[in-house]
Amino acid sequence: MMKRYFLYVLLGFAVLPTYGQGITDYYRLPEQSQHYDRLLTRYGGPYIKSRWYASLDGFIRTDRAKLDNSFDGLIQSDVVGKAGWGAVVGWVYRERWAFEAGYARMPIHTQVSVTNASYPLVFRYNSKQNAFVLRGKRLVVSTSKPWLRSGFWLSGGMWIVPNSGQQEGKFSLIGYRYDGRRETPDTLRLASQTQANTRMTALAELGAEYNIRLSNAIDLGFSVRKFWGLSNALTTDVTYAVNYPATQSGEPNAGSRTSVQKAQLLGDGSGMSYGVTLRYTFATRRQLTNALDVRGKTPHIR
To answer: Does some domain include residue 120?
Structure first.
């Protein structure tokens, strides 16, 4: 009986290796896509070599024309705040550098307010709304390693604003001022004419932005930008005359005090912008090295 049991045991040891060869999952290599996904999750940002994206911008922009004479507080130049929008296409290199080119609806303004009237009078003029930008950006602080896409960026760029070269508007006001020493009142005239430049206007830009990575394809950004006008887009000439001309012949009334003053508002687009940007990445180029080369090593970006 013992010999029979011993024989069964020997047969069992002989059959088990043969049965085990049919179970091959224990040494099957993982799927390449799973291997790629794990490496992308762990080292994804540094190994994204470049990206192409399109974005939509919404912003509030402010600008103020430069006034050289207020006529003792009679007129002033106001800050103009207007909503605008834009669209750009950008390219990112190694999640550190970015370059953008795009278009925005961003007019330049001059606004004259007559403050000494019985009620304030406001006259606003603007250039053509089309503007084109080239911008460079640099990531300075990342808040989402290793993806690196969330963080603070600094940007600088140049804007080109085409101008029409046409007259954009004019106004004329008349009033009277009484002096107790004379029966005849002084006649006050205020006239203005606004002309657009015949050449394009250039603006320099410096900005800061915080970018948030919402998904592999979508980012959300919040920006603030400062603009410096390098040339004028609009020129508003204002003339303030007292008792001139007072008669049909163009001569002032006898005994009247006559004076003519001139002022000029230059709209060059200098101001600020506060905006929100939504980006969509439509093409990504990745650089994935051997897993043995990256395991246990810290990725380094130049």
So the answer is: yes
CA atoms of 65 and 78, how far apart (whole Å) = 8
pTM metric for this prediction: 0.75
Q: Which domain holds residue 131?
A: 42-161+198-232+266-294
Using CA atoms, how far apart are residues 199 and 192, in angstroms rounded to an integer? 22
CA distance between the termini of the chain: 78
Residue 279 belongs to domain with CATH number: 2.40.160.20
188: pLDDT confidence band, cut at 50, 70 and 90?
confident
Distances (CA, A) of 25 to 38, 47, 210: 20, 31, 47
Type and span of the H or E element at 187: strand 186-196
- Nearest by Cα to 194 from 82, 107, 130: 107
Q: Is residue 31 part of a domain?
A: no
pLDDT the model gives residue 300: 46
Residue range 141-177, pLDDT digits in tens: 999 876 678 999 999 999 999 998 888 899 999 888 8
Q: Are the CB atoms for 55 and 87 separated by under 8 Å?
A: yes
Confidence label for 54 from pLDDT (cuts 50, 70 and 90): very high
pLDDT level of residue 184 (50, 70, 90 thresholds)? confident
Residue 143: name the closest of 151, 135, 132 by CA: 151
Question: b vs e for 208-235, b when ≥16 Cβ sit within 10 Å of the residue's Cβ?
Answer: ebebebeeeeebebebebebebeebbbb
Distance CA 109, CA 127 (A): 7
Q: How many domains does the chain have?
A: 1
Whether 222 is covered by a domain: the verdict is: yes
Task: Report the run of H or E that residue 240 belongs to, with start and end.
Answer: strand 234-242
Indicate whether 66 belongs to any domain.
yes
CA-CA-CA-CA torsion sign (218, 86, 94, 208): negative
What is the model's pLDDT at position 198?
92
Rounded Cα gap, residues 55 and 230, in angstroms = 27
